[in-house]
Design a protein that fits this description.
By secondary structure, the protein is of the alpha/beta class. It contains 17 helices and seven strands. Among the domains are: 58 residues, no CATH class; 64 residues, no CATH class; 147 residues, 2-Layer Sandwich (Nucleotidyltransferase, domain 5), CATH 3.30.420.10.
Length: 392
Amino acid sequence: MFIADWIILCLALFVASLYFIVNYAKSIRLHPVGILSYARKNPKVLLVTFLLALAFALRVAFVDRLPRGFNQDEASIGYEAWSILYYGIDRKGNVLPVHLISWGSGQNAFYAYFIIPSIALFGLNELSVRLPMGLFSCLDCGRKFNPLSGTIFDGHKIPVSEWIEFLIHLFQYESLLCSSLDNQNAYNTGRYWLKKVFLILDGYQDGILLSGDVGVDECFLVMKPKDLIVLEGGKKLRGTSRNQHCVYCATDGIRAVLLPYGKGSPSRTGERNTVIPHMVAASSFHDDGDSAHNAIVKDLGLPRTVYPTKYTKGLRDKDDPMDDINSVHREFKRLMTAHGAYDRRNILGYCNLESFIYAHHGDKAAMVLDMLRRSFECGKVLRYREALKKHE
């Protein structure tokens, strides 16, 4: 038997012993004589311990030789990990890469980083490359555990390079159709990834506080034709009616909040429940004089500057004192126009996305890095079928 096989056997015995001792320690005081007595009184625990050791040993024993053949993907990822471990670069010279360039579409870099400790311990060979995956695999269901398990990427493979491309398209207000054609993905893949973005940004605006001189206004989104309220004679409601979705918007020039209110004209109650919790008491605000904004004055007592629409209409953007909030409206309308067939139940998701884009002020590299960080920190999992199932 090779030294590596002895190491694997010892690991199996260690895991089984740990399971047994933990169960024993929960019931009685830890003592050598007590352990033997506990084993006699609890044969089921002893049996489970034996089966666990056997299953573990069968799973990882001879993993360097079974299955036979060390394929090119395994060899490639092993060499990349060895190169990163000792030189900090991949074989192409890229420093600490997130995606490895090889044949076809390349390889995800996460497993390369994952097996670095194994290569440092056993050297560069078949055992060091295969053992980490063998240790984190479940024999009965075949499920494999890796650094992406339990993250937003769990359950559906997403090459990081394609995920980054999709994010860039999203931040540039491209439609899902254009993005899918450019990425050579199915349209439904784009829909699925967009749902993942919404899940990652869930609650993104909760902690935003606006200070300084805050611009406040509302924008409106059209409803689906089938949901429109039609009067007798086929006439539709006009103006800021119940045929439009209202979104409260506010910005201090650095951050922006966009919060769905509901259908129709804004109200003071809506203002209290949406915008006011995001405003610092020592700030001021400016608006177009809408009476719904009186709640800000009444509740917070903030200084207010009014710029009526009849005075700002026709002004160039640089001369318009309301341009800060108007720019939020323009960019949000660009996003919603690119996703014209959006599900109205996802309006909050689009609002969170626009708030995220606005906070980075056009720096797409910073947006991608921030989104990647949030992706790995997100402990939620979204399955493909769950994301795309039809709602009644």
